[in-house]
Amino acid sequence: MQGFTTTLGCRSKQTGFTLVEVLVALAIVSVALAAFVRLSSQSIQSQQLLEQAQWAWLAADNSAAELALGKVPELGMHQFSCPQDSYEFICRVLVRESGGDLRAVTVQVYADVHSEHRLASLTTLVLPHSFP
């Protein structure tokens, strides 16, 4: 029995990771990735809302310019389609007396006919007659 050695009572060196360590590491990585995906999703949604608001502002500005250069509608509330890019906005125009020869025109832009959430609003003063 002289050439036979036993490792009984001796602890061997551990190499690699245990299953528990690997599972804990995977759990940490998965939580971090889930947080990153959520943040990316919120960022994309915010960017889309900002883009929609910019197009709505352009729709309001274009509608106000068209009214200033053309025939101003009668006093009161008017509604018409004012599409921009791929958005089918609805413009609601309120025309009021402003004193003198001017009328106050407020253009409000909504996402659709039934929407109550205003995306953009612009008020300007215009002459009530059209230019030749």
Automatic annotation (TrEMBL):
<comment type="similarity">
    <text>Belongs to the GSP I family.</text>
</comment>
<comment type="subunit">
    <text>Type II secretion is composed of four main components: the outer membrane complex, the inner membrane complex, the cytoplasmic secretion ATPase and the periplasm-spanning pseudopilus.</text>
</comment>
<feature type="transmembrane region" description="Helical">
    <location>
        <begin position="16"/>
        <end position="37"/>
    </location>
</feature>
<dbReference type="Pfam" id="PF07963">
    <property type="entry name" value="N_methyl"/>
</dbReference>
<keyword id="KW-1133">Transmembrane helix</keyword>
<dbReference type="InterPro" id="IPR012902">
    <property type="entry name" value="N_methyl_site"/>
</dbReference>
<dbReference type="InterPro" id="IPR045584">
    <property type="entry name" value="Pilin-like"/>
</dbReference>
<protein>
    <recommendedName>
        <fullName>Type II secretion system protein I</fullName>
    </recommendedName>
</protein>
<keyword id="KW-0812">Transmembrane</keyword>
<keyword id="KW-0488">Methylation</keyword>
<keyword id="KW-1003">Cell membrane</keyword>
<keyword id="KW-0472">Membrane</keyword>
<comment type="function">
    <text>Component of the type II secretion system required for the energy-dependent secretion of extracellular factors such as proteases and toxins from the periplasm.</text>
</comment>
<keyword id="KW-0997">Cell inner membrane</keyword>
<dbReference type="InterPro" id="IPR010052">
    <property type="entry name" value="T2SS_protein-GspI"/>
</dbReference>
<feature type="domain" description="Type II secretion system protein GspI C-terminal">
    <location>
        <begin position="50"/>
        <end position="126"/>
    </location>
</feature>
<dbReference type="Pfam" id="PF02501">
    <property type="entry name" value="T2SSI"/>
</dbReference>
<dbReference type="InterPro" id="IPR003413">
    <property type="entry name" value="T2SS_GspI_C"/>
</dbReference>
